[in-house]
Amino acid sequence: MEILEEGVGELIGWHDPDENRGWVQRNKSRELRDKRMTIGEAVSTFVHDGDFIASGGFGHVRVSMVGVYEIIRQGRQGLTMAGKTAVHDADLLIAAGCVERIEVAYAFGHELRGLSPASRRMVESGQCKVAAEISNAGYQWRFLAAMMGLPFIPSRNLLGSDTLKHSSARVVADPWTGKPICLLPACYPDVALIHVPRCDKYGDAQMDGILIEDFELARAARRVILTTEEIISEERIRSEPWRTVIPYFLVDAVVEAPYGSHPCQMPYRYYFDEEHIRSWLQRSKTVEGAEAFLLEYVHGVEDFAAYLEKVGGSKKLHELKLVEELHPAEGV
Amino acid sequence: METGLDYSPTVLLACIAARLLEDKKSVFVGTGLPMIAAMLAQRTHAPGLLIIFEAGGIGPRIPVLPISVGDSRTFYQANAASSMHDVMSLSQAGYLDYGFLGAAQIDRYGNINTTVIGPYHAPVVRLPGSGGANDLGSFCHRTIVIMRQDQRKFVERVEYVTTPGYLSGPGARERAGLPAGSGPYRVITQLGVYGFDEATRQIELLSLHPGVTLQQVQEASAMDIRSAGDLATSAPPTAEEMAILKEIDPTGLILE
Questions:
Q1: Is residue A151 scored above 80 in pLDDT?
Q2: Which chain A residue is nearest to residue B125, measuring alpha carbons?
Q3: Does the beta carbon of B114 lie under 8 angstroms from any beta carbon of chain A?
Q4: What pLDDT is recorded for position A63?
Q5: For A240-244, what is the mean pLDDT?
Q6: Which residues 177-216 in chain B show a CB within 8 A of chain A?
Q7: Under a CB-based contact definition with an 8 Å cutoff, are residues B84 and A137 in contact?
Q8: What are the E-state strand segments in chain B?
Q9: Residue A12 near residue A169, CB atoms below 8 Å
Q10: Which of A83, A89, B27, B148 is such that its CA lies 20 to 30 A from the CA of B45?
Q11: Distance CA A141, CA B85 (A)
């Protein structure tokens, strides 16, 4: 097939499908076993320096912040990050110096809240490199190709743009219509951190609300660290099996972490902690401010429970629950 | 038409954007002004407008203004809480009529930059990148851009095409393989409303906002802009529109 155009972006996370099948056969156990562990154990076992990591959720919604904080706490270096609507997660990891390069669909911003001072500073000074560009649909279809065990998937976005020129995609003539079509290469992150409302001790996970792209990401990533608001019984999972979005054999670690998405939102449970996010955006305007913030909320707290106390404890968390449940009069 | 009302520039933009949306059509929206415009349209002339969010929200009854595109308000009492793969596929398959985009820079052919200002490898300002913009700009039948215009933003040629407009002119989108008949439809700024000439696919001024002059438009643009033969004046917000906008954004989060 003749290649009409080829992006110059670095090809991140691609494997020959046969190589990945072999890896899956050797490394992904189908055994139904208890995978509960602490976030410290999960990160030290499955996240290594230089790994390519992806975070589930979308923007500030349903993000495993407990996992992000632990990666920073353990001082991981040289990570490649999937900038798939990466917002608070990426901003903190980049600010902490964990991320060497990032493939960008969306990064360095906080949606309506404005641009990210810390990660912009790192990327504009070359301390964090942009390895390639892509779009939101482009990224999630890269995960789709991976979960299907295909080398690529065709799509009709990116065409004609500089986003394509700086991506790892290629353009060929579609053998049916003859029109140019974009081929998005499969993308297998080394590790995905995904936060869910509930799962059993084996990792069978349910979600409430939109799935975003976590269905595809959980199947594309080689390792999945699942953090969860609560662990429920296997019987409850089996009584409503249609609710299982991620089945156990995709999951490598199960970490119980109530409020594990704070300060991000957890649908039907708690709203964004705008005060905390605003404080980060304000303080991270300087290198010293960002360092002091990370010292205060990550390095300076013993564990996630201590962090939750630090950000306001049960009173604050209750307020965020009320706002999420649309009781603004009682909340903030 | 009501006149003599006090309104902020963003209120006018929200009203103009809302009026462009048709009843019983679908629209892909992001956060901020587009969301307000879509909500206003639903509460005025387009109660059957289907609102879709890229993270998976389909047809919500938005209770209060969402802050994020994936916020639970974007699937509150929705027809479906789905996934990005689903809604992006629907849009690629032709189910999305309108899409809203923002822009740091736009050019004569409606190409949009939201990636970088300055050299790509040594950026003066690194912006967030495509997000879903390239996808919306590729797939939606009609895209509507809402942005502030000035000489740095309204340029002859964008420094970087994050999202394709009409690229280099008539037929260029189709030659690149983009879905036939799609592309930029309107550009709404603080000064006026622009469309794209059918024959040349170049931007043209369709209407000036009340009190704005042609000279102001040229001064806030680094490209020469043709005016449509029957240049109109944008209708100011009505009292009804303003009252509804106050309900949608009571604290002035977006509509300062």
A1: yes
A2: A124
A3: no
A4: 97
A5: 98
A6: 177-179
A7: yes
A8: 26-28, 50-52, 57-58, 80-81, 98-101, 105-107, 112-113, 116-117, 125-126, 142-146, 154-155, 184-188, 192-196, 203-208, 226-233
A9: no
A10: B148
A11: 7
Q: Are the C-beta atoms of B27 and B38 separated by less than 8 Å?
A: yes
Domain edges within chain A: 3-324
Q: Which of A113, A136, A174 sits opposite B84 (nearest CB)?
A: A136
| Residue A240 CB contacts under 8 Å (≥ 6 apart), including other chains | A206
Mean pLDDT confidence for A68-81: 98
- Tell me which residue of B96, B101, B152 sits closest to B131, measured CA to CA: B101
**pLDDT beneath 70: ranges in chain B:** 1-5
**Tokens representing residue A156 in the block:** 């009709």
* Catalytic residue of the set B54, B156, B219, B247: B54
* Cβ–Cβ under 8 Å, residues A234 and A201: yes
Higher pLDDT, A103 or B252: A103
Indicate if B247 belongs to the active site: no
Q: B interface mutation test: which of A115, A161, A166, A177 has the most B CBs within 10 A?
A: A161
Task: Kindly state whether A270 is in contact with chain B, defined as any CB-CB distance less than 8 angstroms.
Answer: no
CATH architecture of A3-324: 3-Layer(aba) Sandwich (3.40)
**Bridge-based pairing state of the strands A180-185 and A170-173:** antiparallel
Q: Which fold has domain B9-248?
A: Glutaconate Coenzyme A-transferase (3.40.1080)
pLDDT of A265: 98
Domain boundaries, chain B: 9-248
Burial (Cβ within 10 Å: 0-12, 13-18, ≥19) of residue B250: exposed
More confident residue, B2 or A107: A107
Residue-wise burial string across B116-132, b where 16 or more C-beta atoms lie within 10 A, e elsewhere: beeeeeebeebbbbbbb
SS3 label, residue B241: helix
B104 vs B115: CA distance, rounded Å: 8
Say how far apart CA B128 and CA A83 lie, in whole Å.
10
Q: Would you say the pTM of this structure is higher than 0.90?
A: yes
* Candidates A102, A104, A111, A127, partner chain B, best to mutate (most B CBs within 10 A): A111
Q: A243 and A206 in contact (C-beta within 8 Å)?
A: yes
Tokens of B46: 């387009």
Nearest to B135 among A124, A137, A274 (CB): A137
Region at B77 (left for phi over 0; alpha for psi -120 to 50; beta for the rest): left
A189 within 8 A of A199, measured Cβ to Cβ: no
State which amino acid sits at residue A243. R
pLDDT for A328 equals 60
**A136:B132 CB<8 A:** yes
Q: Is A131 on the interface with B (CB under 8 A)?
A: no
In the three-class reduction of DSSP (H, G, I as helix; E, B as strand; rest coil), residue A214 is classed as: helix
